[in-house]
Amino acid sequence: MATLFQQFTNALALGCLYGLVAVGYSMVYGILHLINFANSSVFMFSMYFAFYSVSVFYLPWYFGLIAMLALTILLGVCIERIAYQPLRSAPRISLTISAIGVAYLLENFATVVFTAVPKSFPDIPFLQEVIVLGNGEWRIQRLVIFVVISMVVLIAALLFFLEHTKMGVATRAVSKDFETSQLMGININAVIRVTFIIGSGLTAFGAFMWGLKYPQISPTVGAMPGTKCFIAAVVGGIGNIKGAVLGGIILGLVEVMLVYFFPGLSGYRDIFAFIILILILLFKPTGLFGAKVTDKA
Amino acid sequence: MLEIKNLSVNYGGIRALKGVSLCVEQKKIATLIGANGAGKSTTLRAITSLVKPSGGQIFFEGEDITNMPTREIVARGIVLVPEGRHVFPNLTVLENLMLGAYLRKDSSQISRDYDYVFELFPKLKERSWQMAGTLSGGEQQMLAVGRALMARPKLIMMDEPSLGLAPLVVRDIFHIISQINAQGVTVLLIEQNANAALKLADTGYVMELGRISMSGGGRDLLQNEQIRSAYLGKAKDVSK
Predict the structure, then answer these.
(1) Do A173 and B99 touch (CB under 8 A)?
(2) Residue B189: what pLDDT?
(3) A170 touches chain B (CB under 8 A)
(4) Which band of pLDDT confidence, cut at 50, 70 and 90, is reported for residue A291?
(5) What angle do CA B227, B228, B233 make, to 5 degrees?
(6) Mean pLDDT across chain B
(7) DSSP A121-144
(8) A residues 45..64 contacting B (CB < 8 A)
(9) CA dihedral for A126, A132, A137, A141, sign (positive or negative)
(10) Residue contact B82–A166, C-beta within 8 A
(11) What pLDDT is stored for residue A182 in this prediction?
(12) Which conformational region is residue B19 in: left (phi greater than 0), alpha (psi within -120 to 50 degrees), or beta?
């Protein structure tokens, strides 16, 4: 029972992490209709940022987290400015190809700069400490609590932003109709930049928590979590924020709990996400919360 | 107030506008009529900088606004009610109106303008919490006009506001246009319903294949034999 509880909390934390990053994918897709393939590389860079700020420059972990957030956001915004903004009126496929190009560029750049030798993510004893509850049977890592609380707070803040602020309403408008938004006087480039700030920030949070769970950093480290978070966004219905969170949690739960109940499957844990993806695409291609998509490309 | 000089626009290799000049006087209603593809919508899109002109100049209140970013043109008091309404279907009626006032900072005046719009269109008040996508075509057109009014425009440009609407609703729309104009807002109207538009307008321009082929007072054009046969035909008068 106690192990079940522990596994469940692990699953929940992993799910929240997937959910956070998935929201970033979903928002970027919602506004640009772009599957941001470069985000896996942003995820990877984000982990290196944490490594350099904490393990090399000896910042305390919370300052390290802030530095990591700031640098990741800067990277995300630069990518948008350099690789996506010039293609604003180009066909969608050009944008997607540009994103793939950025992903490869960053990955190879990282191999040159950081070398392919894995680095280890900094230890943060405060978050990795296990809290023991009751008679010593119920154990929960502080990280789990930190992840779940961050997720709830960040998503609540994001929903508040989208529903109740002028910029948030403008964001929803731009995601439907660039031209009419411009006619309202909305600066669509500014709105898109804000979307990338949010997306990259959430990616940094995800990368931070991922690093604490799987503390090995290499230039290809972003591929698997990046792909899974994208799958989470598709499962929830891409473009939908609550869907992305739910998709992430489902993915996390399935991945961890299946291995718990069927230990023999542990070698296959990475394929569950893809099986879920295939099932969703077969039976509900628009995702759990997805609206009917009218393709205006 | 608005003066266009020798405006040309190219779409790919096609010349959509071939040197259009026209003038809209302050507090008047001007209308632009012509067949499909004559370049009426393109003219409005060029004024708001949604398409970049390849030549010519656009002046608003004496200032050259050619090639300015759209939002700066909007900030100067020009709004476009686009063809096909283009309300934001995923936003509530209230949020749509709020975006109309996006560039304004005077919040107390804005809240008075909500009341003004709701007075003009009581239906919108009833439905202010509804998603704009669930409104009927006529209600969406009213929302599009209301949204434009929220910007406190000096010049409101409307692209086919009566398109696809029931005759009764069309009559309402034309009534509203003259009401808006009576409030001191200058109007530039594109209409396929040439008869109703010319009756309302102080000045009319006829467009053909990217050029202005004729212009004059609204009533004068209405009497013109050439125009009667080309654009008015047996069109029912629905403006009364």
Answers:
(1) yes
(2) 93
(3) yes
(4) low
(5) 125
(6) 89
(7) PPP-HHHHPEEEETTTTEEEEHHH
(8) none
(9) negative
(10) no
(11) 95
(12) left
ipTM of the complex in this document: 0.89
The C-alpha atoms of residue A53 and residue A61 are separated, in whole angstroms, by 8
Question: Of chain A residues 187-216, which have a CB less than 8 A from chain B?
Answer: 187
**Residue among A170, A176, A185 whose CB faces B90 most closely:** A176
A177 touches chain B (CB under 8 A): yes
Q: Is A169 on the interface with B (CB under 8 A)?
A: yes
Q: Please write the tens of the pLDDT for every residue from B162-206.
A: 888 888 888 888 999 999 999 999 999 998 888 888 888 999 999
Split at pLDDT 50, 70, 90, the class of A202 is very high
Q: Where are the domains of chain A?
A: 2-283
Give residue-wise pLDDT tens across range A192-201.
999 999 999 9
pTM, two decimal places: 0.90
> How far apart, in whole angstroms, are the C-alpha atoms of residue B208 and residue B229?
15
Q: For residue A189, what are its two tokens?
A: 């480039």
Alpha helices in B22-166 (DSSP H): 40-47, 70-75, 93-100, 107-120, 122-126, 137-149
Q: What does DSSP assign to residue A56?
A: I
CATH number of the A2-283 domain: 1.10.3470
A168 interfacial to chain B (CB closer than 8 Å): no
List Cα–Cα distances, B143 to B114, B117, B138, in angstroms: 12, 9, 9
To probe the interface with B, which of A183, A293, A296 has the most B CB atoms within 10 Å?
A183
- Return the sign of the alpha-carbon dihedral for residues A96, A97, A99, A103: positive
Is A148 an interface residue toward B (CB < 8 Å)?
no
